Amino acid sequence: MPNDAPNNDRARLIATLFEDSARANAATLETMQDRLVAAADQLIACLEDGHKILSCGNGGSAGDAQHFSSELINRFERERRALPAIALTTESSTLTAIANDYDYDRLFSRQIEALGQRGDILLAISTSGNSANVCEAVTAAHARGMGVIALTGKEGGRIAALLKDGDCELRAASSSTARIQEMHLLFIHCLCRLIEDHLLGAAD
Ligand SMILES: O=C(CO)[C@@H](O)[C@H](O)[C@H](O)[C@H](O)COP(=O)(O)O
Ligand SMILES: [Zn+2]
């Protein structure tokens, strides 16, 4: 027999989680609103110049990396041209070979060495800011002349310290991995919306 808390305790827990998420949402809006506009401008300029966006992350952030590339390649909310984006989290043969023959830390950087071009942007996603393979991806992107937009949380971690002038850190105002992931998805949807509005004109 599962040892679940009584239903009213579980309902209260759900209310607390919603409240925590709403608090993280409001605090992140306060700190990141202007930076989101700047990050969208960076992505728009990259796409208009004919470059592409690579994305990476681990676990839930791998899902976010794919979510973002899918919304660019396919569509977000409106019909428009397909946009070039590649999630570096999906090619299982490539991923297993790199992890097996080199090191898990090189999972994304090796692919950036192969695919990254000057002017492309890396969307680097890490809730802690400390995943070694995402740090190496940032370094590899810089070596290829790419810009970086980092989605982080907590204190920004090692990734925040690796960023250069012209890069952009979007940091969720929370120390909970789950709440940070919720903010990251909102960041991604804001960026997709601003890109789409730029291409098509603001929606009604
Ligand atoms: O989704 C979750 C937890 O909500 C986990 O899968 C989480 O993404 C993984 O533990 C990641 O390895 C965490 O990496 P990072 O966000 O610190 O870079
Ligand atoms: Zn979405």
From TrEMBL:
GO MF annotation terms: isomerase activity
Pathway assigned in UniProt: Carbohydrate biosynthesis; D-glycero-D-manno-heptose 7-phosphate biosynthesis; D-glycero-alpha-D-manno-heptose 7-phosphate and D-glycero-beta-D-manno-heptose 7-phosphate from sedoheptulose 7-phosphate: step 1/1
Source taxon at top rank: Bacteria
Domain SIS: 43-204
One Pfam family this sequence matches: SIS_2
Listed cofactors: Zn(2+)
Binding site for Zn(2+): H67, E71, Q181, H189
Group of enzyme by EC: isomerase
Catalytic activity field: 2 D-sedoheptulose 7-phosphate = D-glycero-alpha-D-manno-heptose 7-phosphate + D-glycero-beta-D-manno-heptose 7-phosphate
EC number per UniProt: 5.3.1.28
Record bears the keyword Isomerase: yes
Residues involved in substrate binding: N58, G59, G60, E71, N100, D101, S126, T127, S128, S131, Q181
Cofactor note: Binds 1 zinc ion per subunit.
UniProt-annotated location(s): Cytoplasm
SUPFAM superfamilies: SIS domain
Gene3D superfamilies (alphabetical): Glucose-6-phosphate isomerase like protein, domain 1 (3.40.50.10490)
This protein's UniProt keywords: Carbohydrate metabolism, Cytoplasm, Isomerase, Metal-binding, Zinc
Subunit structure and binding partners: Homotetramer.
Family statement drawn from the similarity comment of this UniProt entry: Belongs to the SIS family. GmhA subfamily.
Miscellaneous field: The reaction produces a racemic mixture of D-glycero-alpha-D-manno-heptose 7-phosphate and D-glycero-beta-D-manno-heptose 7-phosphate.
Its job: Catalyzes the isomerization of sedoheptulose 7-phosphate in D-glycero-D-manno-heptose 7-phosphate.
Protein name according to UniProt: Phosphoheptose isomerase
Organism encoding this protein: Salinisphaera dokdonensis CL-ES53
Gene that produces this protein: gmhA
